Amino acid sequence: MPTGPAAVPTEPKPPLPAALSETAPPSAAPIAGEVVLDVQDLRTYFFTYAGVVKALDGVTFQLRRGETLGMVGETGCGKSVTAFSVVRLIPDPPGRIVKGRVLFRGADLLRGLAAEASFHPLKGTPRVKVSRRFRLIRHANERMEAIRGRRIAMIFQEPTQALNPVFSVANQVGEIVYLHRGTEVLDEMLTATPNARDVAPAVAALMTAVAGKRLDEIRRAAIEVGRAAHSSRLATEAFYIARAANRPPVLHRDLLAAIAHLRISPFRRQYLVYRRRLLELREQTNRIHIAELSGDPGKTGGKSVVRARMLSERLRHFYFGVWGVRRWVHKPLDEALFWRVVRILEGVHIANPVQVARGFPHELSGGMLQRVMIAMALSAEPDVLLADEPTTALDVTIQAQILELIGDLRRRIGTAILLITHDLAVLAEVADRVCVMYAGQIVEHGTTREIYRQPLHPYTQGLLASVPRMDHPEKELSSIPGSVPDLLVPPNGCRFHPRCPYAMPICRERRPPMTQEGPDHTVACYLYKGPRVGG
Amino acid sequence: MASSAPVVISARNVRKYFPIRGGLLSTHVGDVRAVDGVSFDVHEGETVGLVGESGFGKTTVGRLVLRLIEPTAGHTFYRPSPAVTSRLDALYGTLNPYSSSQNNGGTLPPVAEAALRELDEIANQYSLYRKHGRAMRDLRGKLQIVFQDPFGSLSPRMLVRDIIAEPLEIHHAGTRAERRRRVSELLGQVGLNPEHEWRFPHEFSGGQRQRIGIARALALRPEFIVLDEPTSALDVSVQAQILNILRHLQNEQRLSYLFISHHLSVVRAMSQRVVVMYLGKIVERSPTDALFSTPLHPYTQALLSAIPIPDPDLKRERIVLQGDVPSPAAPPPGCRFHTRCPAVMPVCSKVEPPLIEVRPEHFVACHLYPAEWTGPAATRAASLSIPAAGPEPPLSLSPPLASAAGH
Fold it and tell me: Do A469 and B321 touch (CB under 8 A)?
């Protein structure tokens, strides 16, 4: 609820900010387009004093543009480790990705992995000594910065712990916005034409719209004001000024002040130009990094990366680094970012984005925080979104809101989503395909319909049978006996055999291969005799 | 069925306000109305589900009926005789018209004064909150709780056998050898091995820890157990194990449960009757089947439609509630749900709807029912005089939303 005396009734659902931008995003992204993320035989181990925990042992899946792939399994099956491995956020030490390929649009995110460390088993103990080459690891991490957050974004499980409690929401989202869309924001600041005379007719139109008390008209008039001044920031700001002000004179005065505020003094302008250079260098570095990951021999070159880094350091220590001056010259940028954040928060259906942006994480509810996290993750319009149990900490009604929101954004931006959850019911509603994980391996993979209609693997069958059904409440719940095995000493052969009702002698000896059982349905179980898939 | 069995726990008009202190001298500036007048009965051998989103006072209700925290007002009765129950109903029927907030501070008519005195007398004799010392301690053995978080509710420094034996020691139950036998018996009942008693809690998985918590609650052979989200921290496969154990124990020992959960499909599988809470108040109370087949309150309808169903072919219309939950420190006037209600009417923001019996055993607090609603006092008194068989169920009263929620 707006705190100020509202002259206008509050808006139930703010229109999407996309209406403002010149280049409207594609209305409907093609579902299941080309493969954006191709994970092959991913193995992530944790090297502990008690031995090697094989958290991921040969995980293979593909993610296509605009599709939602659900990943399901019990706690400790390696679902989160998969997501963290894809963006290389596995804490190292103790963890390391030891093998595999993660191809993101042709760039291998794990390029040069084999050289990063060598492994020496210690005789007489289950331990393995890992010799890491830290220079290479550091370089790999720097390269990942070109991908992480920008191309592959992530939503974490616990929204209340993912944000920093001592910075405001605007501050934290603004930082992300600056990193991913900074050039856009700076260009707009530098090219805005805050000329009161040019904007006057649009302002007059806005005043009449406010008198009409129709929110959609106010919104449209505010956008016109912004267009007249070549500033989308002004459009957002004018809308909230119009929504909050109660008397026309106050409104007019505030609007003029906002327009005057767009003017930037030459000294500050110089600073913004430098900041833009810096971002450009960053972009350039990122391009080089991605070229390196793609293995493009022509563009590889550590030297240009070093040069870019040196330049950015020099810029950072320029005279704007003087205490106090820096803060003063930086202020317009912060304000521009604030209004950009407000616009982004509107996009995730937050009803009072200005208050939320000014607020601190502890002031917001879990659902609201999760929306802020989604806004952050999607502000760069990433190609891939890794959602690690995004609704587990939320209530069902809020969960419904968040799932609706994620689906809506997927349709609008065409992002591919890896949705990790242990709730099979959630996946049935939103996923196109489902892969079932057990003890670090994918045991079944298929379209959602196939998995739910005809689950093949005994583990999938057990999982589905243990979900209490709203439609058949009388049924006695069946459960899978036992629990997820200790991955320090995983069972031989099929890792599910100790809990499997159909275990055969061969299950104890050899790991079952992935077999094709339908056009888009594969399973790793000896009960099925379809043709083998892959290696 | 259940209503013929004797009542084990009967909560009447229980309130819990947590004071907010603030200002210069940290004076009392307001209240968080966590629980605001909640009444329900739990019969022997029955499970009552308590449903609502987080922050609506579910856990507080669970703790209040066990007297783990002291209430601000209201009473809870342990095994009240039918005579006491009927007298209480009559007294609350007399008092209800005067208990609303408008009458605060005003003088009460003599009828109400007398009722209040009699209520006080009955409470002194039977209420859980008026018992002291030994009497209360003996009762505590009959009333137990299983906590939500199996990782936080077991002491990491005690062996499993000590954890389970602790209630027995506190209540001086049996000799040392008997207690030891009881511990291994309990471990068997919850599906753990006897050798597990020599381990520490950290050596167990979440599901196994919850079994230990259940064994501890069962140690004193209780009659009533509050299950405070016993499976929300567990995986579905393990959840099914725990729910089956709880069901089995209930059949074996004729236990009564208050099953607190935000997971409606679990509640449906477990309970015979369901209480739906919204912001400290009961909005709907009914037998489970009736609630899930014909939910009456718009909040219940939205809650039911928000539950994902593990079936990709079942696409249904979902009621997505807009906005966030209001704060219980400043609950909205009138019906507390009116800020998010899809079927909101002008009256909703002004008058608080009473909990009335719309169909037999099916209570709802919403202005949509019945249509010829006249005022809080009249309806409340009328609703209490309706016999259990009740009038014909008013089928035509279903709000427009019922069709959207049904599936």
Answer: no
A393 interfacial to chain B (CB closer than 8 Å): no
How many angstroms separate the CA atoms of B239 and A156, rounded?
A: 24
Q: Which amino acid is at A329?
A: V
Q: What does the pLDDT look like over B101-120, one tens digit per residue?
A: 444 555 777 888 888 888 88
In this structure, the number of other CB atoms found within 10 A of the CB of residue A347 comes to 22
Q: Closest-CA residue in chain A for B238?
A: A479
Is the entire prediction scored with pTM above 0.90?
no
Model ipTM?
0.71
Which residues in chain B touch residue A476, judged by CB atoms under 8 angstroms apart?
244
Give A366-395 pLDDT, tens digit per residue.
Answer: 878 888 998 898 888 889 999 998 887 777
| pLDDT tens per residue across span B193-212 | 888 889 999 888 888 899 99
Q: Which residues of A touch B265 (CB under 8 A)?
A: 425, 467-470, 473
- At B17-55, the pLDDT tens digits run 988 887 777 888 888 888 988 999 999 999 999 998 877
Which contiguous run of DSSP H or E holds residue B9?
A: strand B7-22
Contact A429 B262 (CB under 8 A): no
* Packing angle of the helix pair A134-144, A266-294 (nearest 10 deg): 120
Sign of the Cα pseudo-torsion (A20, A21, A22, A27, in order) = negative
Per-residue tokens: A323 = 């205490």
pLDDT in tens, B342-382: 888 888 888 888 888 888 889 999 888 864 444 443 344 33
- Which of chain B's residues have a Cβ under 8 Å away from the Cβ of A448? 312
| Residues of chain A numbered 46-75 and touching chain B (CB < 8 Å) | 74-75
pLDDT at residue A12 in the model: 43
CA A417, A421, A427, A429 dihedral sign is negative
How confident is the model over A499-516, as pLDDT tens digits? Answer: 998 988 999 988 899 999
Contacts of B53 in chain A (CB under 8 A): 395-398
Chain B, nearest residue to A430 by Cα: B312
pLDDT of residue A304: 63
A·B CB contacts under 8 A: 133
pLDDT exceeds cutoff 90 at A83: yes
CB B244 to CB A477 under 8 A? yes
What DSSP string runs through A95-128? EEEEEEEEEETTEETTTTHHHHEEEEEPTTSS-E
Hey, what amino acid is at B376? P
What residues in A contact B302, CB-CB < 8 Å? 397
Answer whether A256 touches B (CB < 8 Å). no
> CA-based Rg of chain B, rounded to a whole angstrom?
22
- Inform me whether the C-beta atom of residue A395 falls under 8 Å from chain B C-beta atoms: yes
For the residues of A191-232, what is the DSSP string, one character each? H----HHHHHHHHHHHHHHHHHT-HHHHHHHHHHHHHHTT-H
Verify whether the Cβ–Cβ distance B302 to A13 is below 8 Å: no
CB contact under 8 A, A397 and B306: yes
Whether A486 has its CB under 8 Å from any CB of chain B: the answer is no
Q: Is the pLDDT confidence value at A415 over 80?
A: yes
User: Nearest CA to A239 among A253, A250, A229, A225?
Assistant: A225
Q: Do A425 and B307 touch (CB under 8 A)?
A: yes
d(C-alpha A414, C-alpha A30), whole Å: 7
Q: What is the mean pLDDT of chain B?
A: 82
Note whether A452 contacts B302, CB cutoff 8 Å. Answer: no
CA angle A354, A355, A359 (to 5 degrees): 120
C-alpha A132/C-alpha A513 separation (Å) is 32
Render pLDDT for B292-348 as a digit per residue (tens, 0 to 9). 888 999 999 988 888 887 777 776 677 777 777 787 788 888 898 988 888 888 888
Q: Nearest-CA residue of chain B relative to A13?
A: B322
